[in-house]
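The data are passed on as follows:
___
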Amino acid sequence: MFSHRKNHKKISYEKIMYNNKIIASKIVLCNTLLKKGTGLIFRSKYSVKNTAWLFSFKNPRRVSVTMFFVFFPIDVIFLDKNNKIIELKKNFKPFTNYTCRKKIYSFIELESSIINKYGLKIGRSVTFIWSIYYLVRFCYFCVISLYRPNSHQITEIFINKFW
């Protein structure tokens, strides 16, 4: 999972797909210690409506997920480094804890019943789709970097001005 922060803006994914179906049309990237620590605490059930909360880590680890002060059930998908589903937690109840059995690189919190609705299975992969807006910017960045002398200066100006 990629995340790039420059001037408080970030490149991130727009959708998550499974079996060519969109399971989340918006992604909240929890990439800071504060966001990873709070997640859905004290949020309403509408914060997961068509939205995935993505928690990713640089190194594999066993994680414990808590539902303290989360007042609605959710589904959780645990992924390896290739976005393959390692473990699923259906209908994770409020005010409970869960520790995954295997080491993971990321996990996704979704509204309850998504796992059943789309038939998610262990061993299958999910796909992260970039926003076209960010994809075009990324391609432009690559072209400039490859074909222009002193491209690092041009690239730095581009990133500072537009990103």
